[in-house]
Amino acid sequence: MGKIYTITSGKGGVGKSTTTANLALGMAIAGKKVVAIDLDIGLRNLDMILGLENRIVYNIIDLLEGRAKLNSALIRDKRGDNLKLLAASQTNSKEDLSKEKFLDLLNLLKEQFDFVFIDSPAGIETGFSNAFAGAEGVIIVATPEISSIRDADRVVGILEANGKHNISLIVNRIKPEMVKKGEMMSQDDILQILAIDLLGIVPDDPKMIEYTNKGEPAVLDKISVTANAYINITRRLMGEDVPQLELKPKSFLRKLFERL
Amino acid sequence: MLFDFLKRKRKSAKLATERLHIILAHERGMARLPFFDDLKSDLIKVLSKYIDTKDALNISVSHRDGYDFIEINVPITGNSSK
Which residue of A7, A122, A210, B60 is most buried, as measured by CB atoms within 10 A? Predict the structure, then answer.
């Protein structure tokens, strides 16, 4: 039986879809059978981050309403067979998704895949409760900013009130230079505030925009620190005990080297 | 004094954690006590029968040692017995 994880945040724009894309692709590269579901109905984005936007014929609403078969709605990743994408619909609204049908679908996918990653919409409305309803684990993405952390705490409260206790945190876009100077909260500060388990930390990477521009997630750039951060997280999700990444401020020489 | 602006900048992460600790303690308390807003307006009604509560009345929730506390702070000024 596969495992279902929902990636959520509360606040928008903190990197949910990017995180989903990288974890799903990272898992697929590691040999697991994975499906990534974009549940941000009306605001489809995971397809472009993965570079699969031209392959979409049917979306999740088509599938749930019987206009498409499972095999034609699951879009095959261009890099391999292990990853499939189930795209969000662009024309529907979040209320159009039937929770019962969606939970049935998850049960079916669990039998065919090792991991199911659900990219949750931002906010705490209808779409959000659909997104975590069938999940065993919820991964919260937060950046080291007060608004992101406040919203993450609110989401934790809602999840716990709904009986979800397997909640872990990815601290995204950490800038080690700023943390060192005391200008940015560290992952320890954030963990102490939110009081949930740390799943991993991901550095702020100026190349991220390039990865998105090309539709080639960071995890494919294997020598990068960011790819390593994501790979570590996927290994933890597979049950391995991997030490947390130590992010060090870049030295002057390193910065110079990267400019060349 | 000349370098005060530098010092202040260095503390901003600490300030952020302090501000978050305070607001989240309050918000978590509110989430656990859904009746709080109604209770608060009832308390204000009762208090204002006896005391001039126009300003500086503060009713809040805090959390310490595993318990929620409802804290009521009413400054009683000079001739406030109505």
Answer: A7
Q: How far, in Å, are A132, A137, A197, A249, B14 from residue A166 at the CA level?
A: 11, 5, 9, 32, 29
ipTM (interface predicted TM): 0.83
Q: Spell out the residues 6+ positions from residue A3 whose beta carbon is closer than 8 angstroms to its own.
A: A110, A114, A115, A116, A136, A137, A237
> Do residues A3 and A28 make contact, with C-beta atoms less than 8 angstroms apart?
no
Distance, CA of A219 to CA of A211 (rounded, Å): 9
Mutation target for B interface from A189, A190, A196: give the one with most B CBs within 10 A: A189
Q: Are A67 and A58 in contact (CB under 8 A)?
A: yes
pLDDT of A109-127, one tens digit each?
Answer: 999 999 999 999 988 888 8
Q: Is residue B81, in this structure, part of any structural domain at all?
A: no
Partner-chain residue, chosen from B11, B16, B28, that has the shortest CB–CB distance to A146: B16
- Domain assignment present for B34: yes
CB–CB of B17 and A183 under 8 A?
Answer: no
**Is A189's CB within 8 Å of B19's CB?**
no
Residue with token string 């692709």: A25
A3-259 is classed CATH 3.40.50.300:
yes
B78 within domain boundaries: no
Note whether residue B82 is domain-resident.
Answer: no
The nearest CA of chain A is from the CA of B72 a distance in Å of: 25
**Contact call for A150 and B11, based on CB within 8 A:** no
Q: What is the mean pLDDT of residues A207-224?
A: 96
- Domain locations in chain A as residue ranges: 3-259
- Indicate the number of domains in chain B: 1
